[in-house]
Amino acid sequence: MLEKIDNQNYSYIPGHLQTITSLKTILTTINKEKIPTIVLKGIYLASKVYKDLGRQPGSDIDLLINIDDVLKVKNILNNIGWHENTDILKDLLKFYKKSGLNSIMFFHQEQIPVHLHWHIINSTWPLTRYTKTIDPVSLWENAIQEEIDTVPFKVLSHEHQIIYLCIHAFTHYFDKPVYIKDIQTTIDSFQDKVDWEYLYKQAKEWEVGWLVDHAINQIKQPTKNSYFSCYRKYLIHEENILKQTIFILQTIFPPKIIIAQNLGIPQSKVTPIHYLSRIMI
Predict the structure, then answer these.
(1) Are 36 and 66 in contact (CB under 8 A)?
(2) Does domain 2-280 have CATH number 3.30.460.40?
(3) Strand 114-117 vs strand 61-65: parallel, antiparallel, or unpaired?
(4) What is the mean pLDDT of residues 158-162?
(5) pLDDT tens digits, residue range 180-199?
(6) In what order do the strands lie in the sheet with 103-106?
(7) Predicted confidence band at 235 (pLDDT cuts at 50, 70, 90)?
(8) Where are the domains of the chain?
(9) What does the buried/exposed string (b/e) look like for 102-132 if buried means 16 or more CB atoms within 10 Å of the residue's CB?
(10) 22, 26, 57, 257 - which has most CB atoms within 10 Å?
């Protein structure tokens, strides 16, 4: 499967070119307001890491914003044509560091969707532990300046980029070959610039050292992963039986806002039937 990613796929290029057009429009507007913005994975990896728009698939624009700037960016996106499907952003922000869900999608009738993040942890699993152990301040302090068609933006440092890609791949239980390929290509591209001692020190401080080890080992010795195998690894790294039990219960019965976000409906429309459907699945 990795060979399909290695070979240039010209079908990816039109989407990436459209992404660049959308990204320039968005960043130009955000930069005028002097709002710090980090571009995550996607088009950054395709253009600056793979250095070939035909080798990395992309489907949206991932932006990381400080939580204090999220509503400002929402208004900017709304003003230039990107809108949410449901009006739940303020409710999502109230759950900051109380759930693993820290993003919302914005859609445009003619351009690429925007996935707006306010933390690098983003999952419907109750990964609250990691929203607290991972310090966003260090991400911003170490961010690297980049540009695309003369439009400036920031990206994660090489060390934080690798940690983030490992978390992203793990949260998606490695279900697509590109998740591992992104990690591998980033390591290959920046191998002489990566401070591995700092990377592992940071991962340990953030309590995700075990996760980074597992993800990088997938490059060396791929093993079969699944939703349940990755979920189990998160579960066993909870501190005790009580927290493991809470982790399971919060997975099965998450806050209404997570159900609403998943289904694209208002919180008021979430019913016990939705929870029952979640259990049955």
Answers:
(1) yes
(2) yes
(3) parallel
(4) 97
(5) 999 999 999 998 899 999 99
(6) 103-106, 114-117, 61-65, 37-40, 151-155, 144-148
(7) very high
(8) 2-280
(9) bbbbbebeebbebbbbbbbbbbbbbbbbbbe
(10) 26
